[in-house]
Amino acid sequence: MFVSKGFMATTTRDIADAVGMRSGSPFYHFRSKQELLKTVILEGLEAGQQRLQAAIAGIDDPEQRLRRMMRAHLDHLFASDCQTPLLLYEVRWLEPSARVEVAAVADRYQQPWQTTLDELALLGRLPSSAPPLRLLLFGMLNWSSQWFRPDGDLSLDAIAEAAADLLLA
Amino acid sequence: MFVSKGFMATTTRDIADAVGMRSGSPFYHFRSKQELLKTVILEGLEAGQQRLQAAIAGIDDPEQRLRRMMRAHLDHLFASDCQTPLLLYEVRWLEPSARVEVAAVADRYQQPWQTTLDELALLGRLPSSAPPLRLLLFGMLNWSSQWFRPDGDLSLDAIAEAAADLLLA
DNA sequence: CCTACCGATCGGTAGG
DNA sequence: CCTACCGATCGGTAGG
Q: I need a surface site. Which of A41, A71, A152, B83 has the fewest CB within 10 A?
């Protein structure tokens, strides 16, 4: 609901209804609406991290690995249960201390990406892995949340491939 | 205020205060809060369109033109008076009919981009201009709103150049 | 454009 | 986890 309607437009009553509770009961489980958001973002980042690790386990060739990471990232972006990258739009509603906490976990997610990009640059299969390359890459992938339609002409595979080809041209 | 705090978190009282009005007065000028959003988005798109046209007037070489368009787009993205691409995040709060109206103007903004990309592809300076190339390009540029800091190491010029180099490799 | 106000909603709490 | 409720806020309006 935070993804589809946005944090501000989702009421704690909406959430209570969705799980068959009364309006006051969410606050038995969570101290505040913000803590609910923080929890779901952190859970999603964790799931994304694991999905990423699973996708690249045992893949030695860095180009193959990058392509799999991109596909895994897009999968996670549109998975109905944990659309974390979309939730990151909502981090702004957290208080600063919670925002710092989320940022630390999000940073950790970025590390394997930078490692793989550096590897490719070292092998000469990428002109450079210096900033802002990684951020441009995430831009290509994450922006798809603004226009991708599951019933459209382009598949997630096609998007991942097009972005990878652009990078590795 | 819609950009920095978001539409939902900006109250009509905030807006009234900012221009020295009383709480009810914005509704003398605008029928509703939504209409205020629609107006400011459309004005910003118009300004962006003109900034883009001004940047490419008389530029025949398509690569030069694309590079200028990218720089102009980033400038517009972070111009303090009309951060339209950021406002496009808020389109979701408009009712469907207003959303359609905005989408039509936003589509018009995309046309010169596709034209220039097609031109480059025709000249063989781009492997292809087929979808989702244009959208990947906008992803690289627009996503910078999530991480760009004016006081950081990277300038808008550097970002535009890195993205252009990636595209035209 | 202001005053005065309404109806509704919302996050959160006390007490059980 | 429910009931009952509060304090505050908010978009919007009537009347001038």
A: A152
